[in-house]
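Before a computer can learn anything about folding, someone has to put a protein's shape into writing. The three-dimensional part falls to structure tokens, numbers that each stand for a local backbone shape. The protein below has been through that process, and both of its lines are reproduced in full.
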Amino acid sequence: MGIYIRLGLQEDSWELGVPLSIVRMIKFQIVPKLPAIDLEQTRQYYEDQLMFMTQSRYPEYLIMSKGPAEIHFFSFPDLDPLTNYAMIYIRILQGIEELYHEYLDRGVAIHPNGSLEVKNWGVKEFSLLDPNHTLLTFGQRIS
């Protein structure tokens, strides 16, 4: 069962038996849940290369964080990295150039088509592939 908020509802409307004004106060955080061929290799990459911290480690599940952001991984040893189309967009509020250069200094492989650049849609972005071939795109709005 989920919470559904439809645009255009009146302030006194009800959704799932709860007044809409209460539903609007609920804060959401979207956390990606990604496949990992090898959870230990994934953990090491995110810690050593991308400077994430391990929050929880279970035999079949891994939770990593960097600041307020979290990424969850589930064990999927049969994943073919060449057919993995998983991708996430990580919004950076400030400091994308510094992060990009820090990753380069740490030897993080940037995607061949993912160097830091300003995009037509008003963000500065770069991309990389993790060991599972999940595409991570980091982006910061520019003013």
About this structure: The chain has three helices and ten strands. The longest helix spans residues 39-48. The beta strands are 14-15, 18-19, 33-36, 53-58, 61-66, 69-75, 87-91, 117-118, 123-129, 135-141.
